[in-house]
């Protein structure tokens, strides 16, 4: 009997397969739960106590805050990230911010009041300390570290959220994760914006002050919001009030504060996201204009609030018809309702063209001069070579007239003397040999001896070893 197509066997197989899949899914779920579940190991009571202990500004806390602000201000003034990081590690600013998030999460109105008061005191002390430091004219330079804290963007929000979540998770463990807390204090960077705000006050730069305080507010709100979310997720025990009416009012007030913070956080995040998106699109648009037109764009200004892109052009200008075309293309790059302004100077453009013409002419002249110098050098080398050959020929030239007169005086029996160069070869090389032809009087005694002496005299006189003397 064939059992393969038996319906009962098929049902059993399907049931077994279903159980296997269910078992695998349960295993994956258990693994992920063990890996990612932060509820296990949470110490509610100890966490609440640690956060409350970090809220108040006591005598030593106030001085630590002042000293850390001074250290951070010095670090910003010298553009030293290491000094700024050290100041953030010792700063107690995080305590009241965590207290705000915790108190809203557990409906603790008294802790909320204490947190807000102490946060205000800490911010005031920080601003006063940094203001006094930057009031000294020697320290009023707007360094890159200061400028970096005046323009918050959406990434600062993400850092604050992630830092706040990591901080409250680390604090809520039975065993406190000290390294994590120190790292979060550095990453969230609460101190530098306050120091920059003090710099703005000291230099009467309200743009710096507003931008830095905005950055600090963003960090503080999102850290508190992250704390609130984790406190609710971990189900921290709510504060109970004997008076039911008061408990209800506190719960409603806490819920309202949480809703306001959440709404404001979403609003800030969305605003920063749109601003960051505008800057990215404007930069992309500017690069495309520069590439397509070849314009000499030397400066750019992007204003999100006014929806304006301003380009400063020097050199090759953007023509009016090109400007109209690029203005029409703005919506294609997500820049609707944006004004494109080009600042360029025709006179400067003409001047640059003249400068380029002069430069081109100068380069050509230099090339011509270099070519002439090369030809002159070749001529000099040729003259030098000819001069050397001439000198060589002069050295080889025999002063025959003078030499014959001297020979007549020295040798009375010499009747006639002649000179010629004899060219000979052995088919390997060619040599030129000077030859003197002598004719003696018939009656001269010791003719052979005189001939030998004459040859030696000629060799010494002319400095020629290859000289030959022939006689009749």
Describe this structure in words.
- The chain has four domains: 44-239, Glycerol uptake facilitator protein (Up-down Bundle); 280-347, GMP Synthetase, Chain A, domain 3; 352-396; 400-471, Alpha-Beta Plaits (2-Layer Sandwich), CATH 3.30.70.
- It is built from 16 helices and six strands.
- The longest helix has 51 residues, at 346-396.
- Helix 3 (59-77) packs antiparallel against helix 4 and helix 11 crosses helix 12 (244-293).
- It is mostly helical and 472 residues long.
Question: What's the short version?
Answer:
By secondary structure, the protein is mostly helical. Helix content is 67%, strand content 10%.
Mean pLDDT: 77
Overall, the morphology is elongated
Low-pLDDT parts are none
> Cα distance, first to last residue?
146 Å
Structural domain tally: 4
The CATH topology of the largest domain corresponds to Glycerol uptake facilitator protein
> What is the highest CATH level, the class of the largest domain?
Mainly Alpha
CATH architecture of the largest domain: Up-down Bundle
Q: Secondary-structure element order, as H and E?
A: HHHHHHHHHHHHEEHEHHEEHE
Q: Level of helix content? A: 55-70%
Strand order of the largest sheet: 1-2-3
User: How much beta, percentage-wise?
Assistant: 5-15%
Number of helices: 16
- Which structural class is indicated by helix and strand composition? mainly alpha
Number of DSSP-assigned strands: 6
Compute the CA-based radius of gyration. 50 Å
Largest sheet, described in full? 3 strands, mixed
